[in-house]
Write the structure tokens for this entry.
Amino acid sequence: METIKNTVHSVTILGLGSMGTALANSFLKNGYKTTVWNRTAQKAVPLVKAGAIQAETVEDALLASPLVIICLLDYDVIYETLGKLGRDTLKGCTIVNLTNGTPQEARGMAEHAEKSGTKAYLDGGIMAVPSLISTEHAFILYSGSPTAFEQYESALSVLGGTTYMGSDSGLASLVDLALLSGMYGLFGGFLHAVALVKSENVKAEEFSSTLLIPWLQAMISVMPEMAKQIDSKNYSGAESNIAMQEVGYRNILQASIDQGVDTRLLEPFQTLLKQRVADGYEKEDLAGLFELIKSEIDHNYKIRS
Ligand SMILES: NC(=O)c1ccc[n+]([C@@H]2O[C@H](COP(=O)([O-])OP(=O)(O)OC[C@H]3O[C@@H](n4cnc5c(N)ncnc54)[C@H](OP(=O)(O)O)[C@@H]3O)[C@@H](O)[C@H]2O)c1
């Protein structure tokens, strides 16, 4: 069957927290007939002033548009919200669920949607904060029904860049959480570095802009080589071997203790460094730590976009 593109001009948003409100505003600004529902009805007032239609019930919201976007706090809230519906309410809807969750939760929701007669299900991971929605800096990962993605990509692109990960509904969530784990690693390192220099009254702002950020940017440039080592499982030929790095890392922890800085963020990494050295890989590169944390499951998955 040929996919119909660009025919949707009507969308429903369930959930008007900071993110749902940003999504609704974005559709409104782009001329979409936008129906909204939120547990706390009051939050819809500014959107209604801007032209949105406020549905009184979840049921009315779902029946209003063929494309339904869910952006609630978590999956428990989604089940609570959809659980009270009559059997046929989801029939005919394509659901795009942009609520953050795990791959298992996304797959479970895809199954639930199918059993409830939903036309199609797409799961998504929003890689932006609300103020960046609709800007060039926002992108959203999608996975699930390929037909639904093709049909609604043009409407979804109103929110930001679109990246389709594949038909397994859990993939968008997996990649979303992987990107967030990279971000939290970066922020954790930032916070510890600032705590160290602040222990001697160095201003965080000055330290960050003149030294830390340029340093991190330089270190990010090493990541493509690390990724290559991981893909090839070859960590040899290190110019900065892991035994030397383990000693340097020990100094970071000792200096932190001496300066009264909490070491809890850094300790787990030291455990891995020590184990890799003890396992006999002292001459290899840092990327070899991957071997200690990787999953044994190999799905041989490739990113498409
Ligand atoms: N904000 C971000 O930077 C960001 C970025 C990427 C992804 N996300 C994801 O987007 C989703 C929404 O985030 P947000 O920032 O909009 O969160 P939020 O501002 O805290 O809004 C939470 C939403 O969930 C609803 N909700 C919570 N408990 C409920 C319940 N028991 N029954 C019915 N509705 C309930 C809230 O309704 P009420 O208004 O009635 O409380 C509100 O609509 C989350 O999954 C989040 O991880 C957010």
Notes: The two ends are 23 Å apart (CA to CA). Residues 171-198 form the longest helix (28 residues). Residues 1-6 have pLDDT under 50 and may be disordered. The domain at 175-293 is CATH 1.10.1040.10 (N-(1-d-carboxylethyl)-l-norvaline Dehydrogenase; domain 2).
